[in-house]
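W.,

You were right to be curious about this one. When I first looked at the sequence I had no strong expectations either way, so I just let the prediction run and decided to look at it fresh. Below is the sequence, 171 residues in total, followed by the output.
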Amino acid sequence: MDNTTEPDRLSQKKVKNKIAIILNRNAKKVSKHYIQTFEKLASKYDVLLSSSSQETETFIKKLAQQGIHTIIAGGGDGTLMNIFNTIHREYNHFPFRMGILKLGTGNALANLIGANDPDIDLHKMLHNEYENTYRLPLIGDEQNTFFFGGLGLDAQILNDYMALKDTYKNT
């Protein structure tokens, strides 16, 4: 990978498939393997790596300007809600179709829609072979949307458990 920043790459991107994949670089299962695999399945400029909410917001604004009609999100529930909330704040309507790759710690929404193996799911999405589409009712206020309410304690407990397990794995 060269030193071009992701927002710079996005401005250089020619809209080809009108599909973009946003991967949360901090998500539990976003690994070098998945990044390389996804870059092979889609053109390199279709795969955007985000390290922050602000970077994701920048991507979404530029994608809308470029006529992208589908965003495939790779991460967990937090990644998805960041994308949904950015779209909710920026637009009066939802201008994108969404795809979900199950790559986070918390994957309630991915489980709800039947997401499974990210490689297989991405291939199906890129080739319009996905059997199911869902209209997702969201709740919220002027600033944020949610598909369920929670405090994030489940993810924190799971992270603590995994760290404890790693600490004592050889005992």
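Here's what jumped out at me. The beta strands are 19-24, 47-50, 70-75, 97-102, 139-140, 145-146. And, maybe more interesting for your project: Residues 153-167 form the longest helix (15 residues).

Coffee later to discuss?

I.
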